[in-house]
């Protein structure tokens, strides 16, 4: 990375699972660098969803390096995820035709329920613990039962990794959603469900959805829970296959909670 900026820049790894992100500093100048970030970063920057894109450079080996404005700030904590700003920014993302057009050009495919169900069944069949789990069996049966009830034709750009560490609040009070490597085109209920289930007290779901701009409904709840179940099954199998027992247990407990909610709410 040093040869891109020059000798007067100090570059240090920014952490993360991919090892592709760096902080760069020279005197009073600061940048956030990343190798091979999402190709539609420029659109995200133009709409104020991520910190400003400063430049993009292609290396001799084909890698693309992007430089973004480095803002002082912090990730949201669990309580701050309940702020209306989160709902409003997610709604802005989901209603952006520019983002949707760009991601469709890149991805060319959308997430649809029948393909997701096939994938999750393959995951389960490939793991002996999942194959013999009663909870997983019940969850798969629910997915099969409800698959025709969860189709939704208004596809949007979904972030698909909405944990609170990816929401950044600058010292100037600007909210950003970062780390778009997992973004896909699909049902907005995938993103909405993750935030509601993980961060919002159930008695406040309708109020949060008002901030987002829609009303609560049985149809939305069915779609949300369907995709949440998919996520937890995949998370369980992924953790078990890597011998991460504690993480697997967390996913299984979440799955049981979702199945109880479905039963209690008659979804």
Automatic annotation (TrEMBL):
Limits of the Protein kinase domain: 7-267
GO molecular function: ATP binding; protein kinase activity
PROSITE patterns listed in its UniProt record: PROTEIN_KINASE_DOM
Source organism (scientific name): Gracilibacillus orientalis
Lineage: superkingdom: Bacteria
Keyword tags: Kinase, Transferase
A Pfam family assignment: APH
Protein's name in the database: Thiamine kinase
Cross-referenced InterPro entries: Aminoglycoside_PTrfase (IPR002575), CcrZ_PhaseVar_Mediator (IPR052077), Kinase-like_dom_sf (IPR011009), Prot_kinase_dom (IPR000719)
């Amino acid at each position: 990375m040093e040869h891109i900026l020059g000798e007067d820049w100090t570059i240090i790894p920014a952490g993360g699972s991919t090892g592709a992100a760096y902080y760069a500093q020279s005197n009073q100048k600061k940048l956030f660098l990343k190798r091979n970030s999402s190709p539609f970063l420029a659109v995200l920057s133009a709409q104020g969803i991520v910190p400003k894109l400063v430049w993009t450079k292609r290396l001799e080996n084909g890698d693309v390096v992007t430089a973004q404005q480095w803002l002082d700030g912090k990730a949201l904590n669990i309580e701050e995820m309940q702020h209306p700003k989160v709902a409003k920014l997610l709604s802005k993302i989901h209603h952006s035709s520019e983002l949707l057009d760009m991601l469709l050009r890149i991805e060319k495919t959308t997430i649809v329920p029948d393909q997701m169900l096939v994938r999750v069944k393959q995951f389960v069949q490939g793991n002996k613990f999942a194959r013999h789990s009663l909870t997983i069996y019940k969850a798969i049966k629910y997915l099969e039962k409800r698959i025709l009830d969860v189709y939704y034709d208004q596809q949007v750009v979904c972030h698909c990794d909405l944990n609170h560490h990816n929401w950044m609040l600058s010292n100037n009070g600007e909210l950003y959603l970062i780390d778009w490597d997992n973004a896909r085109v699909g049902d907005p209920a995938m993103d909405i469900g993750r935030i509601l289930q993980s961060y919002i007290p159930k008695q406040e779901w309708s109020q949060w959805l008002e901030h987002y701009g829609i009303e609560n409904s049985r149809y939305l709840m069915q779609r949300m829970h369907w995709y949440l179940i998919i996520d937890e099954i995949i998370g369980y199998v992924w953790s078990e296959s890597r011998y991460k027992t504690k993480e697997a247990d967390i996913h299984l407990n979440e799955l049981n909670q979702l199945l109880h909610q479905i039963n209690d709410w008659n979804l």
